[in-house]
Design a protein that fits this description.
By secondary structure, the chain is α+β, with helices and mostly antiparallel strands. It contains 20 helices and 11 strands. Helix 2 runs antiparallel to helix 3, helix 12 packs across helix 13 and helix 12 packs across helix 15.
Length: 515
Amino acid sequence: MSTTGTTDHEAAGPWGARDGREAAGRLLRAATRSGAHLVAEAAALVQGWAVLADPIAGAVYSTPASAAADGVHAAAAPQEHPYCVQLPAAGAILVLAPAPTTPAEHTGHVAATTAALLEVRGQRAAELRGEQMRLHTTLIRLLLAGHTSVVTETLGRNTTTATETPGRDTATTGTGTGTGTGGLCGNRLTHVTVYRLAGADIPAAHQVLWRAVRPSLDPYADACTLLGRLDGELVVAELHHGGDDGRVLRLVSRVSERHRLLAGMAGPLPLAEMPTAHSGAAAARHSATPDRRIVPADAVGTSRLAPLLPTVPYARWAQSVLRPLAPAHRHLLLVWLRTGSKPRAAAALGLSAGTVRARIRELARLLGADLEDATAQAHLLLALRAPGPDEGGNAALPPGPSGPDRLEALPGGLLDTEAVRSWAYDLVGGLEPHLRIALACWLRHHARTAPAAAELHVHRTTLTSWLGRCAEHLAQNLADATVRAELHLALRATRNGPDDPAALPRRGGRTYRRL
């Protein structure tokens, strides 16, 4: 006896044209409902299981849900699953595992029809994708402009399109772009985690990440993800109620590796601080490398040195130095120091380079310091990374007995401790004299090779080669502005005399002499 969603081939005899028409009709009706219903109907027709597997997202649809892992593995290693039928469908792989009694002709017909219908659904989705992507970009721009209530109300109000759930036959409402579940989504959105990706393959990565993220969001009714391309970058904003489970991070990580992108991540932060998260992610991205393609914003800075400093004098000095600055001023300076240049800071902050230069000049006046000096910049980054009055139970500390502290001068004994000396010697103590002198000179010139080579009286190629040896010996990324600040402080803490370019060992002309 047959039941709904099943066929009784033993009773019906050999598979024939009538069976093909009946199967095609059932699949077509299921396709008009959702992709999940279509895959579920295919599984019922072959009396086994069916999975639509995406190389990035994993199992897009799975019937039953317990077959998801087997379907993904079969798509990745088809030779290990010879009993499965596999066909490309809508940028993914359709995997059918029929029952032993299901005729091969019937399984092939169901697989071909299902794949064709998935392609049709994919083409229809592609026609709507441009409009949906523009909506995402608009919502991200509204968040950056501070219109958080407008965005949350939009996400909670729009219920135009059902969002399909992998491996389930339920459908929920959202914005039509995988952005959550009706009013519940908008009401629960309180925090945001931002990713900013850059690279040559951004358009393809956008399409892949869009396909990977959209069908996997529905089970999380209190979270939604926006994807948009702004100024040549791919921006991913995951909106949630304060808890980030890392699911989008894993997807972004896979896409970054596959398309060789570099990414920065910031958050979770309150939704009203979306501009801060956006600029922080850009600053963190400048510390990313091919070996570490995603860098969190809170991992950037002098974090290895700061925990070694005496807490009370360090916090008092930092609070005294930064007292003239508002939180927005401190954020601008932190982004500038993390990115390593004013044009990069301007791009991260969404400002013009001229505006950033003017603001930094004004902040230099407020601080009473020359912010173009490498030592002042290293001290400023150290001050900005200090624990604030609300961190770790630290109360606001009064200025020292001699009045407000200066940025150029650290309190006595702050870097002159056994822990700091040990850290500095472990970091730069093994450098050869000519490499140490070259590195110190290059850091004083803010990582500009041409003026440093001119002062050292060596060719730029020679200096570049030396810097490569320094990076290899130190196991540090010299392209990271905050790493350079730490190295500058470590060199000052370990020097026995001035690292003077005039003391560079030489042997005739411009050739250095190894000691």
